[in-house]
Amino acid sequence: MSQNYDDDMLVCRCEEITVGEIREAIRQGARDVTGIKRRTRAGMGLCQGRTCEKLVQAILRQELCNAPEEISAATPRPPVRPITFGALGRGEVE
Amino acid sequence: MNSFDVVVVGAGAVGTSVAYHLTKKGFEVALVERGDIASGTSSHCDAVALICDKKPGIDTQMGYASIQVFKELAKEFSYDFEFHQPGSLYVCETDQEYEVAADYVKQQQADGYAMRMVDPYEMQEMEPYLAKDLVGGIWTEPDSSMSPYKLCFAFVEEAKKLGLKVFDHHTVQGIKLNEKGSVEGVITDRGTIKTKRVVNCGGPWARELGKMVGLDIPIFPRKGTILISEKTARVCNQKVHEFGYMLSKFEDINFKRNVSELVEKHNVAFNIEPTKADNFLLGGNREYKGFDINTEIEVMRAIAERGIRFFPIISEINMIRAYSGVRPYCEGHLPIVSEVEEIPGYFIAAGHEGDGISLSGITGRMVAQIMAGEETDFDISKLNFSRFKGQTFADDMAE
Ligand SMILES: Cc1cc2nc3c(=O)[nH]c(=O)nc-3n(C[C@H](O)[C@H](O)[C@H](O)COP(=O)(O)OP(=O)(O)OC[C@H]3O[C@@H](n4cnc5c(N)ncnc54)[C@H](O)[C@@H]3O)c2cc1C
């Protein structure tokens, strides 16, 4: 990953987080996608990181000079797709 | 790794507050954490600092004092941890609950706290989407809210400016004692740090850190689950919870709710909390299930069912995620904040159960006072570890 991203490039569209904000989170000690999420909200919006997670991992790799397999992905959390509280409360889910 | 005045183990709300307050007092401090900052329970929870869910006496006194600490720090810190003070509302489903609630409020008012009973009309004004059949509630003015993990980041970033050294991704494997039995160092997987004082801020894992020096610390994991909504128009304006919540927290409060088997089985009590990100968190439950933080579908179902009973409007709103965490439950409900007599230099600040965010401010302040040999803001002899002297606990004690 030799590509150099611009600081003001948008990474997470749902929460409007830029490359610069991701770099700052890494400076503060973030080492993985979850650490970035908590510091910036990247990946916490409606799409739950489906769009930006790969890019966040690439920036982490670039900044930390890690091998790809060392950057862990975010912890997958249920549900896989949004569901209304009504449907859930009535047990319309397996 | 060189040597430090104090090593704080665990970078949750409690450990980061302790580290900040000690650094501010002038101690040279190392904060050791096996994962990232706030990777334990302090990022798997809600974020309210309440007095309304505390028992009258020292519990409430600490809660109130802690809110004052956060208020000051929110002004001082350049790192924003989203502190705000919207108040909170307890709602009663039955006349019987209302009576217990009124009694409780009387005691708190006698101690000088700004809590009062509200009638259904006022409740509807405060929370227009609340179910219409409730009999009344309690409004607590000083109750506050913040981001729990931003609070941890704020303590760390502000303390770093004052000289705090952070050793994240370092796992503590042992505590070194000298021939007299006093603390001499902290052994991690990446080297040993010399120190004469260590503070165990391990939250639900405090028991393991105690075993390293032969201590039997009665702190056990008590699981809870939270559902997160999509971004929505405002559903509620403050923390709202059912008074029956007190029942799920304290086993000695006696009244039975008229709830489904599922809700009863998982000890679910409704609470809802708006966040700064324009969504809401819906909880919650209390169960002893070891350290497992997988989220169970049946529990999610029960929480949703109970939530709809109080805020029918959420029926049509999407849940986008759910998570679980383990509260550090301490035998007898009060946390441990003290030095350990048997092991000079070994301190414990842990076991805050469902109030660790809430009480982190005052806990850090008091640990710094204890260590500096100053008098604490108020009498905390009830929080001394020596109260468990002579007792032994099984690992599955709480179950
Ligand atoms: C569902 C839920 C909702 C909640 N809601 C609220 C609320 O609204 N308000 C409130 O005040 N509280 C709430 N709580 C409780 C609150 O989250 C906890 O009391 C608080 O987070 C405990 O903080 P802590 O710093 O003691 O523990 P933690 O945040 O768990 O920190 C302990 C740290 O120690 C580290 N550690 C452990 N062992 C080692 C080792 N050997 N070496 C190095 N590091 C180690 C861990 O990695 C961890 O980061 C809630 C809890 C849950 C589960």
Model description:
The complex is a heterodimer of chains A (94) and B (399). Chain A is mainly alpha-helical. Chain A has a single domain (10-89), classed as Arc Repressor Mutant, subunit A (Orthogonal Bundle). Chain A is 36% helix and 7% strand. Chain A is built from four helices and three strands; from the N terminus they run ββαααβα. Chain A has a two-stranded antiparallel ribbon with strand order 1-2. In chain A, a hairpin with a 4-residue loop joins strand 1 (10-12) and strand 2 (17-18). Chain A is elongated and about 50 Å long. The mean pLDDT of chain A is 86. Chain B has 399 residues and is of the alpha/beta class. Chain B has two domains: 3-45 and 149-218 and 332-388, 3-Layer(bba) Sandwich (FAD/NAD(P)-binding domain), CATH 3.50.50.60; 88-141 and 220-329, D-Amino Acid Oxidase, Chain A, domain 2 (2-Layer Sandwich). Chain B has helices at 13-24, 58-76, 95-110, 120-126, 148-161, 206-211, 245-249, 261-265, 297-310, 356-371, and strands at residues 3-4, 6-9, 29-32, 48-49, 88-92, 115-118, 136-140, 144-145, 165-167, 172-177, 183-188, 191-195, 198-200, 219-229, 239-242, 268-274, 280-285, 318-330, 336-339, 346-350. In chain B, the strands form four sheets. An eight-stranded mixed sheet of chain B has the order 6-7-5-15-16-17-14-18. Chain B has a six-stranded mixed sheet with strand order 9-3-2-13-20-19. In chain B, helix 1 packs parallel to helix 5 (148-161) and helix 2 (58-76) crosses helix 10. The mean pLDDT of chain B is 94. Chains A and B meet through helix 2, strand 3 and helix 4 of A and helix 5, helix 9 and strand 18 of B. Strand 3 of chain A pairs antiparallel with strand 18 of chain B, so a sheet runs across the interface. The complex binds flavin-adenine dinucleotide. Flavin-adenine dinucleotide (FAD) binds at residues 9-15, 32-35, 39-42, 44-48, 171-172, 201-205, 209, 224, 226, 283-284, 325-328, 350, 352-358 of chain B.
